[in-house]
Amino acid sequence: MSQFDNVSVLKKASVYFDGKVISHTILFAGGEKKTLGVMLPGEYRFGTEQRENMAIQSGQVEVRMPDAAAWVAYKAGESFDVPANSSFNIRVLEVTDYCCAYFAD
């Protein structure tokens, strides 16, 4: 899917890591929430409250999930899940465009 129709967009951006990660929140009529963002190269650690799925639209990253020793590579067209109430590390290897979906479980 290349676009979202009939949504609301929060005007205020979420800015992390001195502007190296920026996202905007998209709200759907049925209550679903997603964020669209861009990450500049670097290594970051994110915490989660809800279960998430991060889809890489363009770029390339490596991710280390909670309690995992190994980094796993993801590129455009791939995605990964993150459990609720956890954290993950991400190495952004090139400018990366992403879409993150949140699940209320």
From TrEMBL:
Highest taxon of source: Bacteria
Coiled-coil regions listed: none
Range of residues in the leader sequence: none
First-tier enzyme category under EC: transferase
EC number per UniProt: 2.4.2.1, 2.4.2.2
CDD domains reported in the protein's UniProt record: cupin_PpnP-like
One Pfam family it belongs to: Ppnp
Keyword line: Glycosyltransferase, Transferase
Catalytic activity: guanosine + phosphate = alpha-D-ribose 1-phosphate + guanine; xanthosine + phosphate = alpha-D-ribose 1-phosphate + xanthine; inosine + phosphate = alpha-D-ribose 1-phosphate + hypoxanthine; cytidine + phosphate = cytosine + alpha-D-ribose 1-phosphate
Function description: Catalyzes the phosphorolysis of diverse nucleosides, yielding D-ribose 1-phosphate and the respective free bases. Can use uridine, adenosine, guanosine, cytidine, thymidine, inosine and xanthosine as substrates. Also catalyzes the reverse reactions.
Family under the similarity heading: Belongs to the nucleoside phosphorylase PpnP family.
Protein name: Pyrimidine/purine nucleoside phosphorylase
